[in-house]
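Reviewer comment 2.1 asked that we show a complete input and output for one of the modelled complexes. We chose the pyridoxal-5'-phosphate case, as it is the one discussed in the main text.
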Amino acid sequence: MLNLNDLYSNRAKRNAGSFLRQIFPRTREPGVINFAGGLPNPDFFPIEPIIAATEKAMRMDGRETLQYGMTEGLLGLREWIADRYARQGLKVTPDQILITNGSQQGIDLIGKVFLDPGDKMVIEAPGYMSAIQSFAMYEPQFIGVSLNEQGMVVDELADTLKQHRVKLMETCPSFQNPSGLAYSIATREALAKVVSQHNVVVVEDDPYAELRFMGAETKSLQAYLGEQVITLGSFSKIVAPGLRLGWTLASPEITRKLTLAKQLVDIHTNLFAQRVLFQYLLDGNIDGHINQMRGVYLSQRNAMVDAMARYFPPETVFTKPEGGMFVWVTLPEDADAMALFNLSMDTEKVAFVPGVPFYTDGKGKNQMRLSFSTQSPAKIEEGMQRLGRVISSYLDAPSKN
Ligand SMILES: Cc1ncc(COP(=O)(O)O)c(C=O)c1O
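Response of the prediction step:
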C-alpha cells in the first residue's frame, strides 16, 4: 500500500540531489584524474596537532565537553573568531557569532529565517551549487546577477534591485565557488553603495577568504555594510571539513533569530569538535598552517593555469584565480560541457563539473569548473594535457553532441 510519492512534501520531491553526487561514481573509476571535487588537500590536514588537542581538551574539560552546550556555541571559540576579525579592523563581539555545523548550515538557517515561498533573492550567476539547492528548499524566486573579472556586475545588480523587491542576496566575494573570481575593492565599494539604498540582506559566503595566495588583501563586506550583511565563515578550508565547524557573523538581532532557528534543528553544534578545535587554535600554529596551504594551492593553481595556456585550444577562456581552489573554463558558445564530460571520461578519464548546475536559469552549458586543490602539479599537468586533447577533438568534430 505504501506510496511514498503521495506522502513526501513538495519540497522533498523537488530536491533532486546534488549534481556532484550524480557524477561522483564516474569520478571514482580507476585511472581517473579528478578535478570535479571541491575538497581541501588532505595531505596537509594537521593530524598530529589535532590528536594532541583532543587529548588535552578531554583531560582538561572532559565533563563539560561531553555535556550538552549552548546553542550559540563555545564562548572561547566565538571570542577567537571575533578577535580574528579585528585583524581587518572590524569590531566584532561574540554575541554576533553563532557556531554552525559547517557554513552550509548557516545557509540553511538563513533560508529558514528570511525566505517565504515566492520571495525574490539574488544569486550570483554562476553561483555556489549547494547554496542554490539549499535556498531552493524555501522556494524563493532566484534572480541571477552576472560576474566579471572584478566580481559581481554592480550595474546589473543596481537595475535588479530597482526592478524587484529583493529580500536576500547570496554572494561569495572571495575566490568564488565555482569561478575562482574575487570581488575587487572597487566592486565591494560600489556594491555597498547600491545595496545600502535598499532593504535587503546580503549573505557573504566566505569560506575561502583566508586562502589568498597573490594580489592585494580585501576586507569583508561587513566593513562596508555592517548590519546589512551576514557573513558565513568556515574552518573547513583552513583546518578540516570533517570537523563540520563554521559560523555566522551578523548583528546581535539577526544572530538571535538564527540561534532560535538552529536550536530547533540540532540544539547545538557538536561540542566535542568545538572544544578540540578551540584547543588546536590555542596551541597549534594556525597561521603557519594557513600559510603552508596558500603555498600549496599557489603551486597547484600555477600548474593548472600554465598547463591550460599550453594545452587548451585558443578559443577557450579560463579564470586565473588569486586564491581558493577553482578555475572556471568557458568554451565557445555552441559547446556542451556535459557532452564533453562524457567524452572526457570515456576517452581520457579526466573529470570536471559541467556548468549548468551553477545557474538557476539553464545557462552555463558551455562552461565547466575545475578544482586544483587535491592533485599534485605533475598530475595537473598530465590532466590538462589530456583534457586539452579532448576539448580540441570535441571542438573539431563536425557535429557536437
Ligand atoms: C562557497 C561555499 N560556501 C559554503 C560551503 C560549505 O562549507 P562548509 O559547510 O564545509 O563550511 C562551501 C563548500 O565547498 C563553499 O564552497
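The chain has a mean pLDDT of 96. We note this here for comparison with the apo prediction described in Section 3.2.
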